[in-house]
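Why do we care about 3D structure at all? Because function follows from shape, and shape follows, mostly, from sequence. That is the central idea of this module. The next example makes it concrete: a single protein chain, its amino acid sequence, and then its structure expressed as tokens.
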Amino acid sequence: MKNDHKSDFRISSIERLKFYSQFSKYYRNKIIVKNLKKFIEEKDGKNILLYIPMNMEVNVTPLLNELRKLKNKEVYVPFMQGDSFKIVKYRLPLNKKKFGIKEPNNSFCRPKKIDIAIIPVVGIDAIGKRIGFGKGMYDRFFDRLNYQPTMVFTQLILCKSDKILSNNYDIQADYIITT
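And the structure:
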């Protein structure tokens, strides 16, 4: 029963995000990226996990490009591998892969530790746990780490359920940045 509610919530959240991504996306992206940049500066994050955005996600590309130019920051993104992903340094060119997601080429340059992980969400449940696209890649990745970075969820608009839809393995945000 919980999975039916989770699936229904995921579908309705994706529809809301698609709608908003067509209309007020530019303005919302600017606000969120500005707040993410401020957050990274305040927390003095050195090794940062970001993501290469899909259409309905917050467009963090300007932040990716700005951070990669800084000498005191290292920027990493997911590289899909099996049922999860590994993190690779953000480099151009990007190649379109499974699920239409763009990725840099595979690399062996990994940080010892990620300070801040910025993670896109489809929605969150009543206790702040992530509802994603249903593949569980982020959940598996963070479950396999032997430490917990500061986790920041991003979303163009807040899609929050008033019910607990998550499973015990779903990741939870330390912070949520949205408009």
